[in-house]
């Protein structure tokens, strides 16, 4: 009467082992796929950085059909009557603060352009927003553009009143509604802003291909370790059974 129970327990362990092993391997393969995608994206960004800067009209036209991150842009922009934008909960070199943006006009009747002024550290009192010197005259700017990836868990603008205007997510469509004028679909990160020495963090890809490859190795290692452990337990179980049968 005991044999079927032992055999049934062994079959259950084998099935669970195969299921968990398959899941771990699949997770590792998925990370390798993501690494391949990131490698292709990194190559695309390198090619875009090597190209000549786009005009504003070219940028707007490309934005209708493809991602704009990594392209270079050269424009002459003028400040408009709009609040400075502070993107909350940013971290740079271990410091917590904001990414600051200013709205600029490139074409008289075209969408406004959001220009990154740089990272500024936040103070201990969140009620006190940092002060920034805004651009006050037309200026020639050249740099790279980017589009913030959306966070499915939190993508709402969640803007506060005031100038500067603190926001929680760089949701350009919502921001355009709040400001009551159209915005370009990408943000300009200038190489140099005269009189402005704020740092400009550049992380167009949240996780690099190397990170995904490292995660894949971890999943494959876990799969191998789990399989060896379960094989050991099955061998131990069989030895105990043989010992009891004697």
From TrEMBL:
The chain crosses the membrane at residues 12-32, 216-236. Belongs to the SURF1 family. It is found in: Cell membrane; Membrane. PROSITE patterns: SURF1 (PS50895). This is SURF1-like protein. It is a multi-pass membrane protein. Keywords: Cell membrane, Membrane, Transmembrane, Transmembrane helix. It holds the Pfam family SURF1.
């Amino acid at each position: 009467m005991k044999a079927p129970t032992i055999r049934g327990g062994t079959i259950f362990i084998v099935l669970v082992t195969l299921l968990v092993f398959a899941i771990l391997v699949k997770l590792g393969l998925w990370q390798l796929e993501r690494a391949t995608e990131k490698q292709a994206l990194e190559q695309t960004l390198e090619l875009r950085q090597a190209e000549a800067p786009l005009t504003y009209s070219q940028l707007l036209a490309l934005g209708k059909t493809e991602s704009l991150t990594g392209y270079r842009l050269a424009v002459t922009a003028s400040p408009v009557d709009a609040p400075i934008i502070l993107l909350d909960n940013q971290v740079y070199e271990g410091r917590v603060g904001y990414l600051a943006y200013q709205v600029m006009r490139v074409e008289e009747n075209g969408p406004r352009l959001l220009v990154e002024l740089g990272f500024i550290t936040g103070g201990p009192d969140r009620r006190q927003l940092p002060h920034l010197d805004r651009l006050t005259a037309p200026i020639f700017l050249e740099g790279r553009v980017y589009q913030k990836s959306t966070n499915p868990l939190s993508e709402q603008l969640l803007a506060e009143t005031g100038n500067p205007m603190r926001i929680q997510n760089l949701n350009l469509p919502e921001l355009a509604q709040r400001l009551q004028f159209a915005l370009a679909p990408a943000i300009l990160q200038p190489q140099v802003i005269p009189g402005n020495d704020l740092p400009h963090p550049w992380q167009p890809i949240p996780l690099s291909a190397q990170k995904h490859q490292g995660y894949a190795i971890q999943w494959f290692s876990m799969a191998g370790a789990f399989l060896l452990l379960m094989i050991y337990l099955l061998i131990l179980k069989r030895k105990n059974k043989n010992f009891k049968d004697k």
